[in-house]
Amino acid sequence: MDMKDYFENTQGIGILATADSAGKVDVAIYARPHFMDDDTVAFIMRDRLSHKNLQSNSQAAYMFIEIGPGYKGKRLYLQKVREDKNSDLIEKIQRKTRNSFSDTEDRFLVYFRIKHTRPLVGDTSDVT
User: Which CATH number fits domain 3-117: 2.60.120.260, 3.30.565.10, 2.30.110.10, 3.30.420.240?
Assistant: First the structure.
């Protein structure tokens, strides 16, 4: 199963980790990534701490924990490549209803290149 199929067909909980330019880390619950046509993934973000951190530090990590027994899932190491603000594409791809966002709050579609992937547990490879 490829990554797109995995994330479209697997239920679980996602956590996005970002850090500011001084290295102060933040973690937040995030939905599954949207796989885009140009070999990137995207997340819909509000202008909160995770998004603010990405303005000064383009590195992020996303951990996905599958629902079920044991510890199964994926870790994605990400590099921000660009973002769009309040785009029509957000309306098209969002999974939840519009009510999950305030009508007056800016929304960003933030695109990332996947630099490296690892399973949730059991992999001892180094990440650079």
Answer: 2.30.110.10
